[in-house]
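Sample 3 of the quickstart, ligand zinc ion:
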Amino acid sequence: MNEKRQQILIIAGSIITGASLLILFRKQIATFLNFPLKAYFEAKTEEALLELHPKFRNVAKRFLKEVEDKLGYTPIITDAGRTYNEAQANQQSGTGVAMSYHLAPIGLAFDVNFKNEQGIPVLVKASSKTAWQPVVDIAKKYNLEWGGNFTNVAYDPVHFQYSYVVQGRKPSELLKLDRDSNGFIKI
Ligand SMILES: [Zn+2]
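Result:
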């Protein structure tokens, strides 16, 4: 074996070992660096949190963290903070949820599933009200409205929204408000 080939093998070996260690010890690393959620490595969830309105982001994090701590469930945010343009495009093409209903386009709602410690999804759209109840009890503490209680639209237990800050204004009115430099409405 020539020297160059040997070097390449050593580098490849190091990368594989490094990546494996990172995966194996991700929980410990996350704890050490004080990341707020175990789900930090669920890139989708982390990205989704950043898409939430600044007034809602920490409320959402604290809620999800408490669910993790008390129930041992890891959140997987499946949808959050669609931008105004995305929401408008959805509405025009007739796909997705109409802007007038959903608070997601202004970053005040998200859809979430939960996995247990074995990585098995335990709370999903098809799960019963009873199964969701422990999470919903925690959501109440954070003034979150739950889609499982919606009466004007279909049962949507994965949906949580923070209508507390909108003070009776309709989503359609909120969409017209001024926006900050990051595109979030000023509320
Ligand atoms: Zn939703």
